[in-house]
Amino acid sequence: MTEKPEYNISVDVLKSCAAFAVVVLHCAAEVMDDSCTTSINWWIANFFNASVRWSVPIFVMISGALLLDSRGDENCIRFFSKRVRRLLVPVLFWTCFYYFFRYSHGGLTVKQAIGGMLRGTPFYHLWYLYMIPGLYLFTPALRVYVAHSSSRERMFLIILIFTISIFQDIISTFIYSGQPTLFTMFIRYIGYYLCGYQLSKDDFHLIKKTYSGFIIFACALLSALGTGVLVHFFNLSSHNGGFYFYSNFNPVIILMSLCIYHFLTDVRLTGADKIRHYAPLTLGIYALHPFVLNRLGRWDFFLTHFTGTYFVIPVKAILTFFICGVVVKGLIRLPYVRQIVI
Q1: Does the CA dihedral 57-250-90-145 come out positive or negative?
Q2: pLDDT averaged over consecutive 10-residue blocks of the chain (342 residues)?
Q3: CA distances from 277 to 7, 14, 22, 130, 325 (A)
Q4: Alpha helices in 9-54 (DSSP H)
Q5: In terms of residue numbers, what domain contains 198?
Q6: pLDDT at position 71
């Protein structure tokens, strides 16, 4: 999402689909927040939410696939200078933008502002922009590792990292609620980062693509049912483990993310040429969409009344994605402003 790779339609399709999935996720989350947990609306939104939890892992895997291939003409200094310039401006701008937004909608103290930055969460979705620099920091060392390791050795490390991440996630969710900070939040994502590189290799095959659709649907269903069980039968809230099956480090979400990435890589999609046009806009869409969702909040009654509850999430997601795309495409045309969205 923060890289500008050589043209590759598979990468473009992955980025565009992941950006749309993020919008769907947050549309579904809004419906869940406004619905009784025993209502059909909550369960519909729960399934939508569970079905798109692969979005951020896909972004991380794309970065791994693009950046972990060694490049002889790019030393550490050149690598870091390029990424610092590309990341610093959008991180600073969107942090200030959403801090102003929070301040104008209920107030924001200096302590809350500093705490939000240290946790990497100035706003609920900006954690990704605070997490990705940690992966970039270790990229030169990881490049050396992947260049001198075998496929089996890389798979062992990936499995080891995911295993540790799964146990850490269980402990932090149900036993000790310690929050990661901007200095540690990236560590668990190294598994996805390496997976992106590994799955991009022509000699590596995860699973037959004919089975991927079934596995993806089964994972989405398991995630939704697991969330329902934790919320209804164990009376857990989002703050004490009720949404554990949404976690990027739940085994079900890990498997679904890997299958989505594998399935969409080199897949021949009708309309792929149109989908790929959103790829350069994904950073801007990701950063802007919560603001647009908030502004569209007053339309919820209209959408529910005229399209029916079942269609509120996809209709609102498509509308939000389209509006963000138009705005970001306009901003890209401005010489200095474009740095905040691309």
Answers
A1: negative
A2: 53 92 94 86 93 96 90 78 88 96 88 92 95 94 92 93 93 81 91 92 66 91 96 87 95 95 73 75 96 81 56 89 95 90 84
A3: 11, 12, 17, 26, 10
A4: 9-34, 40-51
A5: 9-340
A6: 65
Q: Which residues contact 153 (CB under 8 A, 6 or more apart)?
A: none
Whose structure tokens read 């991009």? 200
The candidate with the shortest Cα–Cα distance to 71, out of 149, 146, 158, is: 146
Crossing angle of the two packed helices 251-264 and 190-199, in degrees rounded to 10: 30
Is residue 81 included in any domain, yes or no?
yes
Q: Would you state the pLDDT for residue 1?
A: 56
Which of 164, 181, 130, 158 is CA-nearest to residue 68? 158
Q: Could you tell me if 308 and 295 are in contact, meaning their C-beta atoms sit under 8 angstroms apart?
A: no
What is the pLDDT, as a whole number, of residue 7?
43
Structure-block tokens of residue 118: 């240290």
Does residue 110 fall inside a structural domain? yes
Tokens of 136: 């970039």
Rama region for 308: left / alpha / beta (φ>0; ψ in -120 to 50; rest): left
The answer to whether residue 2 sits within a structural domain is no
Q: What is the pTM of this model?
A: 0.92
**What's residue 54's pLDDT?**
97
Decide: residue 131, CB within 10 A, 0-12 exposed, 13-18 middle, 19+ buried.
Answer: buried
172 DSSP assignment: I
Tell me, yes or no, whether 4 lies in a domain. Answer: no
Tokens of 229: 């069980």
What's the confidence (pLDDT) of residue 312? 85
Closest by Cα among 329, 3, 326 to 337:
329
**What dihedral angle (degrees, nearest 10) is formed by the CA atoms of 309, 214, 156, 64?**
-50
CA angle 177, 183, 2 (to 5 degrees): 115
**Count of domains for the chain:** 1
